[in-house]
Design goal:
heterodimer; A: eight-stranded mixed beta sheet; six-stranded parallel beta sheet; 29 helices; 25 strands; B: alpha/beta; about 55% helix
Chain lengths: ~775, ~550
């Protein structure tokens, strides 16, 4: 890695006053090259920040790199390319306290990370907030950074409230004023109190402060400064004013009142008042006590005392005014630039030394190939199993294409009768199989495991599950990819994981929902580092149904098997012309409407084609005992047309299915809703058209693969029947419009693997 | 300039939280506008328990209290203070339980023993051992005392619990619990409660009688028949009397507690003088048809536009629109976090999801079940991506809860009860579409102006009160649906969601027109009416200078 003698610094904050001081300190330390962020999120707490381009001129990095850095949102919206540039050219990052930002910096930046903190209200601690915002991963995140992490506190006592893992990495970099000279222009002719209280309309803390001030100082004339994003119906509230106007108030108003009794946080404006020579009346017990002792004449131990002092000043008590003005200059001492230089120098030396230590090369024998586990949590077969194998292969192939060869492990339940050489024949040899069983840890076991792992957990009240492979529970893998969210308990948080979500069927299928622990499914996705989906429909459901933040979602292209690789097929020699209905016994397959449609097609519309039904357990349809299929039996028994025209083939072997498919007129897909079916893609590859239910995922498939699907309303059996009849005549013509072999290449695994690998890389 | 004085009569019971009442929002808007009139001063008469709540409401709504006079009996009745004391004690006891003394004593004792054991295991010489034993001798009495206190505190709490369980059967406990929560609902204290209210009203009336210069009194609701005993001209607002139109719904949703209220309302109307309603529909169908009030004594004053934009619109930033949206998302996130409805926890939801919004309590005329049917159809058959946010609580509507669970909607239909005004505005702003399927309302639902004020289109039920205000047949066609036909409702919602911009553009034109009718206009019209009804009376009263 590039290691310049003078470190380049990224100061990833946008606070204006702090910037002036800290950039000046960094320059004094001999860091001429400093990057400042240019994109600020549209969030209310960033409203008063500002952007500064002035440091760009001093950066000697390539212009295109700077352009990329300037276009990046460093507050959680940072992509890999930006981090690659940051790692190439910079050594030190100052970052704000924001869970998403910290996670991103910690995951991707390889230099020193200085978490810049200015104190919190009350006895709250950064550690506590971090744990709560990261689902108790804070300690792990911080400790994983080792000597590269610093708790860069602006006041020396801040670490005292922090947990040990943060406190021991504290670094005192004092905050001060870039311009610390007293500029006494105070006149005080306006006999009102100046009180700074921004954001009253949007911030409950300031709203309460405002109400308190009005109540405590009733009868005393006042002016309230500070930006007000939402106007306040009080003529004494100024709202935003230009700097010159603000300075004028500082000159003219008689006194400033500062309310805070917070021991660990202080605002800038009391110092601005002192600098401007304005008398400052403040409450005891706050940080100003640390700065100026307990004997300053402006200090008040009670509201009553504050009222008295303010009233005396407003009445022109020159003796008190002079006493306050003359004594308060001492408050500026710790804020003076020169007084902070030594602490910054010492702190910075520590950062540089320990960064060098952290960067010392590790023994080569400890380096190993990264490993990714693709976990199938349920004993799925059919399309889900096929999709999981494709996913594993796409990751393996994508990493190879990118020259970052990783090992991919395909973890499936240890059920040899289900998962064997036959069912996994399509799995590439480079992907290793690993059977496992779910192991449930009771709350006590889970708590112990998490503590051993190094998580800071307040208490564990529920059971967790972990994939038991008889070795290290897949912990040898750097990332877990869970195919579906169907877990009984939360996953033990010992590895980051991604969820591959194909659908939220339970949102649309009430029957399924009743058999599912929906909350658990949602929790699994929420706790994941990323959620991958393959359709816009599922993407939307993830946001609007599951409430997953958009930043966590990645939409990836659908992977489809290369059916053409199986070679040419023998067309099934059937005595009838038929269409193919591939189904199983699941509720969302819409059997009742399908059978009603078929009856209408045969009995009313005199449809000529036979219907061949295939799929797992589909032969049980006319005599199943499943409650949701009971209405079918009556239909079946009362319709001679159905009994003579519909033929149940059951689950056909792969080759037999393909032969049957190749001989059909078209494929019928009457399912109510799901994430789309491969059967129509497979059919199109054999030149067979399809009549499909009209729902979003199928529309998306049609658009992506140019399937030329014909549509029907799955909730209207009459219309479904009519569409079947129409297809009898149109199928032939549609065949001519289906994509040719060249068009399928664009959807090949080889073509799409890179996209999958990029998505995975972000999580490593 | 001579200043006329009019009175506002309020007599809410002590257990009413003024800020959660829809009527108090109306009162707030009324007073906000009234404070601008220099020629009229309003005097508010209320019971002793209401005046501090009124001041809180003033503060929350930024109303200048100096613009009004409040007259109320000076101190709360002793019996009420006693009840409030018990309620406070109960809260304090709960808090204390959480930070128990026993726990702290246990920690102290454990620390003491650990320290001694540490020292003991570190002993290397006889001298050290002697010193340590001396220390133990000194500390032993303290430790014993701590232990004793711990044991005693445990014992006391256990005995207390046993005694409580022994003394109070489950039924008695429930009875006491209910007594503290709703004293007025219990038969045994009902009479006591009524007597207390009666005494308070008499005191109020005494104070009111002394206010000779008040020309007329206005009461914004028909809850209190004793309003009719005031000696000056009286104007009573009758927003609605829904139970008479939805008898079965109200009979099954509420127990007998509503009967006396309805009885009181009917008495108030029958003994009333002049009336004001918010719509022609209520005037004719309720007052004239049901209660045989003479039409000439009933006046219609429509609502003013209820605008919410000032509560959430951020200004002075680089991108006000984006900041406003982001601020609203924060507010919604806060509302989701505090939602305590049974069923699905909303706390973990990010506030990025799309949703439809209907702000209303759950009452029989609100047509919630039809809305749910429409929504379920749209979700399952038309693949709508949106959630549905309602602001009622399912506590009083088992049918709603049953529908939700049967149709597995608990993850899609969210109940955000008790929203603050800012949160309400945020929900309206973030919603893709605001809805109002209500079968009947007192006036044109606020939904229209509230939603449009923050840039959200609306579809509503085709009911007379709405057609009184939204008069253009073309726009009626686009935004109104038959509330008795859930499928029509669903089609309208679906159409609106697929034609949002078109609908919004047209509705904004109407909103601009309706927006001109502010609460100032409403107050002016009330004052004109008060002038009119007090004209003969005012000749005998001198104006104050």
């Amino acid at each position: 890695m590039h290691q310049p003698k003078v470190p380049r610094v990224m100061w990833l904050l946008n606070h204006m006053t702090a910037r002036k001081f800290e950039i000046k300190q960094l320059k004094r330390l001999g860091c001429p090259e400093i990057f400042l962020p240019k994109q600020v999120p549209d969030r209310p707490n960033f409203r008063s920040t500002s952007i500064d381009f002035s440091e760009d001129a001093h950066l000697t990095i390539p212009p295109e790199a700077l352009e990329k850095l300037n276009a990046t949102d460093w507050y959680g919206g940072t992509d890999l390319a930006a981090w690659e540039i940051a790692n190439r050219y910079f050594d030190i990052v100052f970052t704000i306290f924001d869970a998403e930002t910290i996670k991103s910096v910690a995951q991707h930046f390889q230099g020193a990370i200085l978490l810049r903190v200015y104190g919190l209200a009350g006895s709250n601690s950064y550690g506590r907030i971090l744990e709560s915002l990261t689902q108790n991963q804070g300690k792990k995140i911080v400790e994983s950074l080792g000597r590269r992490f610093w708790f860069a506190q602006a006041y020396p006592q801040l670490h005292e409230l922090e947990p040990d893992y943060i406190a021991r990495r504290s670094l005192y970099l004092p905050l001060g004023l870039a311009d610390d000279q007293i500029n006494d222009n105070w006149q005080g002719g306006d006999h009102r109190v100046f009180f700074i209280c921004p954001d009253i309309g949007i911030n409950p803390y300031y709203k309460a402060l405002y109400n308190q001030f009005i109540q405590n100082f009733r009868g005393i004339p006042y002016v309230i400064g500070g930006g007000q994003p939402i106007p306040i119906a009080d003529a004494n509230v100024l709202g935003f004013v230009p700097r010159a106007v603000f300075d004028d108030y500082m000159r003219q108003l008689s006194v400033m009142f500062y309310h805070s009794t917070e021991p660990n946080h202080i605002h800038y404006h009391p110092f601005e008042a002192v600098r401007a020579g304005m008398p400052l009346v403040f409450m005891a017990g706050g940080m100003l006590d640390r700065f100026g002792g307990r004997s300053l004449p402006g200090r008040c131990r009670s509201i009553r005392e504050a009222r008295q002092k303010l009233q005396r000043i407003l009445k022109g008590d020159t003796q008190l005014i002079q006493q306050i003005r003359q004594s308060q200059a001492c408050l500026l001492e710790p804020m003076k630039f020169e007084n902070s230089v030594q602490a910054w120098q010492e702190g910075f030396n520590r950062v540089r030394q320990e960064l060098a230590q952290a960067r010392s090369p590790r023994p080569a024998l400890l380096k190993r190939r990264r490993r990714i586990a693709v976990i199938l949590p349920v004993a799925y077969l059919g399309g889900s199993l096929r999709g999981t194998q494709l996913l594993a292969q796409a990751i393996a192939l994508g990493s190879q294409q990118a020259g970052e060869d990783v090992e991919v492990v395909f973890a499936h339940l240890d059920q040899p009768d289900v998962y064997n050489q036959n069912s996994l024949e399509e799995l590439d040899a480079s992907v290793k199989r690993r059977p496992y069983q779910w192991r449930v840890l009771d709350p006590q076991q889970a708590r112990r495991a998490m503590l051993y792992f190094g998580l800071e957990i307040p208490g564990v009240v529920q059971s967790y599950q972990v994939p038991e492979d008889g070795m290290q529970q897949l912990m040898d893998c750097d990332l877990w990819i869970l195919v579906s969210d169907r877990l009984q308990f939360p996953l033990l948080p010992v590895r980051p994981y991604v969820v591959m979500l194909y659908d939220y069927l339970q949102r649309h299928d009430v029957q399924l929902a009743h058999f599912l622990n929906q909350q658990q499914c949602l929790d699994v996705a929420h706790a994941a580092q990323r959620v991958f989906v393959t359709t816009q429909f599922t993407f939307d459901q993830a946001i609007h149904y599951a409430g997953i933040p958009e930043q966590k979602l990645r939409r990836l292209p659908m992977l489809i098997p290369d059916f053409s690789a199986h070679g040419s097929r023998k067309i099934s020699r059937s005595q009838h012309r038929y269409f193919l209905w591939s189904t199983n016994l699941a509720h969302h397959k819409n059997h009742k409407n399908a059978l009603l449609a078929l009856r209408h097609y045969y009995e009313e519309l005199e449809g000529c084609l036979h219907c061949y039904v295939t799929g797992v357990n589909s032969q049980q349809l006319p005599n199943t005992s499943l409650p949701h299929l009971q209405p079918l039996i009556a239909l079946w028994e009362t319709s001679a047309a159905l009994r003579s025209q519909v033929k149940f083939l059951g689950n056909l072997p792969e080759m037999s299915y393909q032969n049957t498919l190749a001989g059909s007129e078209f494929v019928w897909h009457p399912t109510r809703v799901d994430n789309g079916t491969f059967s129509v893609v497979e059919a199109a590859q054999y030149g067979i058209p399809a009549l499909s239910s009209d729902y979003p995922a199928m529309r998306e498939m049609d658009a992506q693969f140019n399937l030329q699907l014909s549509w029907m309303n799955p909730h209207d059996p009459i219309q479904m029947g009519q569409q079947l009849r129409t297809m009898e005549f149109q199928a032939k013509e549609i065949r001519t419009k289906l994509p040719d072999e060249a068009q399928w290449v664009n959807h090949s695994l080889k073509h799409l693997a890179g996209i999958y690998w990029e998505a995975i890389r972000e999580c490593l | 300039m001579s200043v006329k004085k009019y009175g506002i009569y309020l007599a809410y019971s002590p257990t009413v939280d003024l800020r959660s009442q829809g009527l108090s929002r109306y009162l707030g808007e009324f007073l906000k506008a009234a404070q601008k009139r220099n020629d009229v001063r309003f005097v508010i008469a209320c019971p002793s328990w209401l005046s501090p709540k009124l001041l809180e409401l003033f503060q929350e709504l930024e109303i200048q209290s100096s613009c009004f006079d409040i007259i109320a009996p000076s101190r709360k009745p002793l019996i009420l203070r006693f009840y409030e004391g018990i309620a406070r004690l109960r809260t304090r006891r709960q808090k204390r339980i959480r930070f128990g003394l026993g726990q702290r004593l246990k920690q102290l004792l454990s620390k003491l023993i650990t320290d001694l054991m540490l020292q003991l295991t570190g002993v290397r010489s006889t001298l050290q051992l002697i010193l340590l034993l001396l220390e133990i001798v000194v500390l032993l009495p303290i430790a014993s005392l701590v232990l004793l206190l711990f044991v005693v505190s445990k014992l006391v709490s256990k005995i207390g619990r046993l005694v409580m369980e022994w003394c109070l059967t489950l039924r008695l406990k429930r009875y006491l619990k209910k007594l503290i929560a709703f004293p007025q609902r219990l038969f045994s204290v009902t009479r006591l409660y009524e007597l207390m209210v009666q005494t308070e009203v008499s005191l109020m009336h005494k104070l009111i009688t002394d206010q000779k210069e008040i020309l007329a009194w206005y009461c914004q609701t028909a809850f209190w028949s004793h309003f009719n005993r005031l000696p000056a001209p009286r104007l009573m607002a009758v927003p609605d009397v829904f139970p008479v139109h939805f008898p079965v719904g109200f009979a099954t949703m509420f127990d007998d507690q509503l009967l006396p209220t309805l009885h009181e309302i009917e008495n108030a109307i029958r003994g009333g003088d002049h009336f004001v309603t918010y719509s022609e529909a209520i005037k004719w169908e309720t007052l004239v048809d049901r209660y045989q009030v003479a039409p000439e004594y009933t006046h219609v004053i429509h609502h003013g536009a209820n605008c919410l934009d000032h509560l959430i619109t951020v200004s002075g930033s680089s991108n006000d629109q984006a900041y406003t949206k982001s601020y609203c998302r924060d507010l919604l996130k806060g509302a989701l976090t505090k939602s305590v409805e049974v069923g699905f926890s909303t706390a973990h939801l990010e506030s990025q999801f799309s949703f439809l919004f209907y702000a209303s309590q759950f009452r029989p005329h609100k047509n919630i079940l039809s809305l749910l049917k429409s929504y379920e159809y749209l979700l399952r058959q038309r693949y709508l991506k949106h959630k549905l946010i309602l602001t009622g609580t399912t506590k009083y509507s088992s049918e709603v809860m049953e529908f939700i669970t049967t149709h597995n909607l608990q993850y899609d239909v969210l109940f955000l009860h008790n929203l603050s005004l800012q949160e309400l505005a945020a929900c309206y702003h973030l919603a893709d579409l605001a809805l109002n399927p209500s079968l009947s309302e007192g006036g044109c639902p606020f939904t229209f102006t509230e939603a449009l004020s923050v840039g959200t289109p609306v579809v509503m039920a085709r009911i007379p009160v709405t057609e009184e205000i939204i008069t253009d047949p073309a726009i009626q066609q686009r935004m109104l649906f038959d509330p008795y036909d859930w499928k029509d409702m669903a089609e309208r919602i679906h159409w609106a969601l697929t034609h949002t911009d078109e609908l919004l553009t047209e509705q904004k034109k109407i909103y601009l027109k309706l927006g001109q009718r502010t609460w100032d206009t409403v107050v002016d019209e009330h004052i004109t009416l008060l002038d009119k009804i007090s004209e003969p009376y005012s000749k005998t009263v001198k104006f104050i200078k």
